[in-house]
Amino acid sequence: MSQLTFTLPDGTVENVAVTTLLNAGYAGRNQEEVASHIAELAELGVPAPTTIPALYPISPYLAQQATTVSVQHGRTSGEAEWALVITDDDVLLTVACDHTDRDLEVHSVAWSKNAAPDVLGSRAWRLSEIADRLDDITLSAWVGQGDGEPSTLIQSGTLADLLAPKYWLDVLRERGLHKAGTVLVSGTISMRHGVDQFADAWKVEMRDPSTGDTLTCSYRTVRMPAPIG
Fold it and tell me: What GO terms are given for molecular function (predicted)?
């Protein structure tokens, strides 16, 4: 189980013990966008999904608010996403980066997403307070190589590019998972062509243009020691 802490715009702090973690996949509203993402994955050898959208259960301890992510090799990468966090009496929205093992992904998307954490931001918004302008909120990601900060734009869009939180809240209710401790990560938007996704650092930002408020998460990857045997 993972313990997460979120600070809200009014200064309130919410502590959440994660009991269920779910990653959505192929969750774009625009089917051309979904097809583009599937094509990106196909270039890496990942077979097309049998059901769209998909939903993958992830080990709850992989919901983290980390600044470093340990990786076994150089073919891992993040994905810009949002995350729903259900508390005892509310639903929060925060920014997230789903780090994925691309070598493992060609064998199983579900396995690959259990090989690295979902990194979440430390700040969040109450979903009810931004529900009327969700589609205007921007979602962007930057990558960096070596010791450099993430400064190369790799993903850019808005929440209108993805299935709405309401869609997934209905799915959670249908499955009996709309309860405190559930975290659902949204699925991602397409990456820019020509940008190396196998980066050493990632930063994801959600921005509310009506207030200028931003939620961010960022981390660096750290290579594990070589195995013995």
Answer: catalytic activity
